[in-house]
Amino acid sequence: MSLYVDIEKTFPDFKLSVQLEGGDDVVALLGSSGCGKSLTLKCIAGIEKPDKGRIIINDGIVFDSEKGVNLPPQKRCVGYLFQNYALFPTMTVWNNIACVIKKPKSQRHSIVEDIINKFQLESVKNLYPRQISGGQQQRTALARILVSEPRILMLDEPFSALDTHLKWRMEQEIASVLAEFDGTTVFVSHNRDEVYRLSDKIAVMNNGRIETTGTKKDIFDSPKTLAAALMTGCKNISKAEKLDDSHVKAIDWGIVLKTERVVPNNVKHVGVRAHHFRYIPETSNEDNTFPCHIHKIIEEPFEKTFMFSFGAGADVNLRFEISKEVCEKWDSKELRVCVPADKIMCLEG
Amino acid sequence: MDFRPFTISIHVAIFATCVTFLLGLAAANCVYKLKRGKGIIDTIFTLPMILPPTVAGFFLLLTFGRNGFIGRFLYSVFGITVVFSWVGAVIAAIFVSFPLMYRTARGAFEQIDQNVIYAAETLGFSKLKIFWTIKVPMAKAGILAGTVLSFARALGEFGATIMIAGNIPGRTQTMAIAVFSAVSAGNREVAYIWVAILSMMSFVMIMLMNHWGASNKRK
Prior knowledge:
Chain A has helices spanning 37-45, 93-98, 105-118, 134-147, 164-180, 192-198, 216-221, 226-231, 324-327; strands at residues 3-11, 14-22, 26-30, 52-57, 60-64, 69-70, 78-81, 152-156, 185-189, 201-206, 209-215, 236-244, 247-250, 255-258, 267-272, 278-280, 289-299, 303-310, 318-323, 334-338, 345-348. By secondary structure, chain A is of the alpha+beta class. Chain A has 2 domains: 3-228, P-loop containing nucleotide triphosphate hydrolases (Rossmann fold); 234-348, CATH 2.40.50.100.
């Protein structure tokens, strides 16, 4: 049960170059919109034809430019959940699912009945897609894909069209579907939280290229590149210059940081997550502790965001997020912030 | 009074609409997703709608006449003479009604969410199955409208018909031509009757079309 992708496709103003491997797990493609995530899925599904490369699904070659293999989408057995679900609008929920089954009519009925029960679509089975909720539409689309017995699953931004309260529920439902499914799942999203909750492996995509691949823990703990840091939600990033193996100069912030990890030679940026800063009440000798100037305090439902800079002169705003309970006592304009040495992320490129 | 023009017109229009329906759908389905050459092919397919009917008729005479390249083939293989025959009237009606079917169907296909088609492909639907079970039902309103328009156009065809099929009472004289004949013969009463029948039929067809268009919008 696996997926192997190594493809290239060139457009006048864009180049897609993707290397991707998946076993019996969930691989997330994390990237901002327009970076080529959906295009990658379309190439795997056979909707778009790459210029060169190979795509192998479960040991079967579905595309190989050198051997001249290019199976049509019909023969690739790929379950593709579209962002807008792409249900057939002229068919009822029942027919949307039933029309996909290739088995004889006698078996069809029980298969549809089973999957409709499983996805709690009993009450809407005779309605048309436009008459049911977004969540029900998504369940119908998933049910339709599963009865087609795909070898791999591909989910294209599955939650972007759902309301917040539905999102959470559908995410849990999809998580249980993915747990049952044996085969690679490719999950495309620009939302780091969804990606972290649903996937095992993450490939960060930027400008048509896969920049880094790794387990989700790796990618979130130490994103290697600027794009990976941004996509995993790092809000504080500065241009950087290496001083020695354990010291890096954050140029935009006007400070020198001591790091725990060895600073790579080609470091270009340094990043710190907004909730990794620490508040230091009094003068202390801790490393990386700097006086800072608060410009603005933004209140969120359960936390506060401090916009600050190191030293009054710098006009670059850093973000420090902390729960309200913790920061209730602070009110001075001046405070001291510690940048923990083990939380500093050195970014190449 | 001779009522044969009514039967001839209806027969010609029904037959022509059947052919136009299939040709128009096929052409629309091929053209709407073209990337290159769409403009020129679209222009050629739309041309019969804009051409003066006599010019259209002249083209048809050139192609389907005894010495025309299709006309010669039809005569030598099937023994069919197109000029001054019922077949000629049908061909003229197909020719002028085709752009209406093609354009409305193409417009309706263009409205279809491409992802739905992609989804059908990944779910294993053949091209033919996608066409008949997904595209045609989704474009139903446009296709119906196109069919009615084509039928109306075929029914009212005059210029190209008279060029290629002539005006033979009982064989190629359609209602539209009967109006012309009656007026030139000074037979006003007969003209009134055909004019009334044709106007009423056109009126009803437009009503039907608007009704389908409106019920489609409510969806």
